[in-house]
Specification:
This protein is of the alpha+beta class and 126 residues long. It is built from four helices and nine strands, in the order E-E-E-H-E-E-E-E-E-H-H-E-H. Strand 6 and strand 7 form a beta hairpin. The chain is globular.
Length: 126
C-alpha cells in the first residue's frame, strides 16, 4: 500500500495534496478504496460550492457499499475530476494520481497542518 510523503491524510481516509498556498487536490486513500472494493459511481459537488472541514462533499458507491466523502479541510470547489464519471475505477487503480476527486481553494490553509503525515496515517491503518 502506498503512503506518499508529500500528501496529508485525514482520519476519514481522504488525502490532501497541496499544490500551492491555497489550492489542493483531494481524493481517497488506497486503504479506503481497498476497504470499499470495486468503485462503480462517484457523486461529486458542483464547482463553486463551499464546504467546511469534515463536512460531507460527496459519496462513493462500490459494489458492496456506499460511503460518504469528508472534506479534509475547508474549501471551495474549483474543479471536479470529470474522468471519474465514466471511469470511477480510476479511484481503485490510481487513487493518488488520476483518481483525484476534487480541486479546492483552501479557505483556511492552516487546517492542513492538523492532518496526519504519511507515517502517522500508515500507523493508523496498519
Amino acid at each position: 500500500m502506498q503512503f506518499p510523503a508529500d500528501y496529508k491524510y485525514s482520519k476519514e481516509h481522504t488525502w490532501l495534496k497541496v499544490l500551492d498556498n491555497s489550492e489542493a487536490l483531494v481524493g481517497i486513500t488506497e486503504f479506503a478504496q481497498s476497504e470499499l472494493g470495486e468503485i462503480v459511481y462517484i457523486d461529486l459537488p458542483n464547482i463553486g460550492k463551499q464546504f467546511s472541514k469534515d463536512a460531507v462533499f460527496g459519496s462513493v458507491e462500490a459494489v458492496k457499499t456506499t460511503s460518504d466523502l469528508f472534506m479534509p479541510v475547508s474549501g471551495e470547489i474549483l474543479e471536479v475530476n470529470t474522468s471519474l464519471k465514466d471511469h470511477a475505477d480510476l479511484v481503485n487503480t490510481a487513487s493518488f494520481t488520476d483518481g483525484w476527486m476534487i480541486k479546492i481553494k483552501q479557505l483556511n490553509a492552516s487546517e492542513a497542518t492538523t492532518l496526519m503525515d504519511a507515517k502517522a496515517y500508515e500507523s493508523l491503518v496498519s
